[in-house]
Amino acid sequence: MHQWTLALLASLPLLAGAAEEPTPVPQQGYSTATLREPLFDAAQVAVETVRITNWLGENHEKVGEAQQAKVREHLYYLIDSRIKQEFAATGRILPKEPDLQLGLLLAWAEPMGVYGGNLVYNAVKVADAPALSPTLLPPEGMTLALRDDLLVVKSELGWSVSMPYYFMIGRLADFKAITGLRTQLMIVSTGAAKDRSPVGYSQATLMLIYTPQVELAEARKYWEQELQIKPTDERVELGVRGLVSQRNHVDAGHMWREIVSWQAPRGAMTVTYMGNDGTYEWNRPHFIDFLRALQTPQPAR
How far apart are the first and last CA of the chain? Predict the structure, then answer.
């Protein structure tokens, strides 16, 4: 048996019996109600962590873009399960002590296309493991940092948002859209949950779009067309700053699509939330939390 397998399996009783004093406010600002029902039990996480990290060690240079997406999702399914076990045992989501399992998984996060993976890896790695430098950098004008157990993204255009570190940031971009307007974009996958897909589980997806110096009606029309949201679709009061979203359900794909947008003092802000039946409902509290955590540009003085 591989030496990592022995080390991980040997650590399982310690995980189950941990009795640390819980932190007062884990993932501050985000509900902890979703931190239960892991997809994999502790033994499965241990064995699968060894399998996938060994496989990546031998094959990462041959992983194409399509396969990379599946690999990074699987990494984060395992991370999600490990975190839920940590929370059940200690009340924390970021372990107080070095964590071999999370370290092995997070070491591959950035190589598989996840922003900020090195930040969390360096926070949980075993003492004798070398620190990792970032290889996937945000675009100029945007920054990414780890603050306690939250990842924080800030833009020079004035918006910022925090989220639990196990959210998977798959894209950060600053570009000129086909409309000719400057656009900042962030795509984030939430925690994992069981769903009605053939696989049986998935992450939900959050997308933030900020377009400076544009009127809300123009930005909203464009993104509603992209998401195929119609004026007649259901309207939902969100309980955050008086915001009202619109959503619809795609029966063929068992998927929900939801969009909310508002006029910021210096541009238009849009946030979308999408997920399969099951994942959508499970993670929707974190859609609301994300909106609460989102700080928008302030009026010019």
Answer: 65
